[in-house]
Amino acid sequence: MAYEYIFGIFACFLGFVLFYYNTRTNKTAAAAASASAVVSARNGEVTEGTATDIIIVGAGVAGAALAYTLGKDGRRVRVIERDLNEPDRIVGELLQPGGYLKLIELGLEDCVDEIDAQRVFGYALFKDGKNTKLSYPLENFHSDVAGRSFHNGRFIQRMRHKAASLPNVSLEQGSVTSLIEEKGTVKGIQYKTRDGQEFIAYAPLTIVCDGGFSNLRRSLSNPKVDVPSCFVGLILENCELPHANHGHVILADPSPILFYPISSTEIRCLVDVPGQKVPSVSNGEMAHYLKTMVAPQIPPQLYTAFITAVNKGNIRTMTNRSMPAAPQPTPGALLLGDAFNMRHPLTGGGMTVALSDIVLLRDLLRPLHNLHDASALCRYLESFYTLRKPVASTINTLAGALYKVFSASADKAREEMREACFDYLSLGGAFSEGPISLLSGLNPHPISLVLHFFAVAIYGVGRLLLPFPSPTRIWTGARLISGASGIIFPIIRAEGVRQMFFPATVPAYYRAPPVD
Length: 516
Ligand SMILES: Cc1cc2nc3c(=O)[nH]c(=O)nc-3n(C[C@H](O)[C@H](O)[C@H](O)COP(=O)(O)OP(=O)(O)OC[C@H]3O[C@@H](n4cnc5c(N)ncnc54)[C@H](O)[C@@H]3O)c2cc1C
Prior knowledge:
Pathway: Terpene metabolism; lanosterol biosynthesis; lanosterol from farnesyl diphosphate: step 2/3
CATH architecture of the largest domain: 3-Layer(bba) Sandwich
Family: Belongs to the squalene monooxygenase family.
Strand order of the largest sheet: 7-6-15-16-17-14-18
Number of helices: 14
Helix content: 40-55%
Distance between the termini: 65 Å
Domain Squalene epoxidase: 203-475
Radius of gyration: 27 Å
Bound molecules: flavin-adenine dinucleotide
EC number: 1.14.14.17
């Protein structure tokens, strides 16, 4: 009996200790959760987080700029980026002046300082030994406003540092493996660190900016990715561009070649190779292709530096992807940047679209204090997809259409269109100013794009018919018009005619912010 008595007292004591310990632990855990800005769970263990407003996946051009912008607006932002080292890539090296204006709106313009960025004042076009200069219409802007070209990695690091300098922004290295979805609402992300540990993080809103090769976009959109060509990248040193501080576009055969400065001593060359397969770099086929097919078509001033760059062997390749935005509005999550929408990089429009989208999204989110009503937020943000259209679609359509027009073709009508385009832009005045305003992102209006596109086609037909129209010439003219329509209309259709030209008629255009 004495045993039972002693055992009873011991059990009561143990129960009291356990109860006390449990209460203490819960209190500590609750205190830790509310105090910490970063709440996560180790090895798949889940801890509900309360302290993050917005998770951003990827800190490239879009993610880094967005993190700074939302952080500056007071949001508690958590960014997970796969690799925080300085990227070394051949993408995103020329920011159009329209994009620079967006950078100013976001307060990020100092990110092009101290990286040896070069000012860009326009483009020079080359065709069959002729060339013409197209200046950006910058007269009405502050003298600082121009395009900027730079090493993409340096620019991104500047934006990452600026974002991470805000106390309410945390930037962590990790690879996001999936979105956490519950009953159709995205609640957060699952990610892995370099040492293989898995974590889970929660926030009322997750913005996915994991770039062109996104592995997360499938659940948030209906992506139709097209790969029209690849870019082969080289860096030329110790040479001067024929037109200093200008992008250079060579209307070569089979497709365009680009040159622009990326520092005070380096010129980027991007050679477009149509299709998805490029000659092999490792077995020397690529060097042979560049020396025999490409070198004879480039301006003579750049020839020696080009051959030296090829011999040096630092040849990079990258697929050029295009993908119209096709969102599937999902509560709790949003896509942005190349993960959401891509266009051919010929016109260097990607960063301008991404930054313009960020300005729009920031303005839409600003009046909201509470992001926790995922369905109401999702419905409200549907207007983002319409409001972005006029700018984004104009830049996207111009890129796709110009790539086709600037590429060589065995079809006589298409060649006439290419010739007409070069000569139309060489006319100067409104004929060059309109198209370069579109390309620069300074005046991206869909109507202006369509008008100039068909003005080029009509100019081409006029040249064919004057002074004496022959049946063959009339036939070529008719095919030119039909070819021009066949280029532009499918792109516009994919972008969405109504959203692009009549956005105000789309119901989602006007959405009042949800009541907090
Ligand atoms: C060849 C080429 C040349 C181009 N040239 C220009 C140009 O001159 N001017 C211009 O404006 N645009 C250009 N573009 C387009 C431009 O590069 C893109 O529009 C821009 O980089 C998009 O930014 P982003 O943040 O969406 O993607 P990115 O800048 O690619 O950033 C994506 C980020 O997400 C990270 N990430 C990816 N997956 C994960 C994951 N699972 N978890 C965590 N992080 C992840 C990546 O590490 C990366 O940092 C070019 C594109 C190509 C292909």
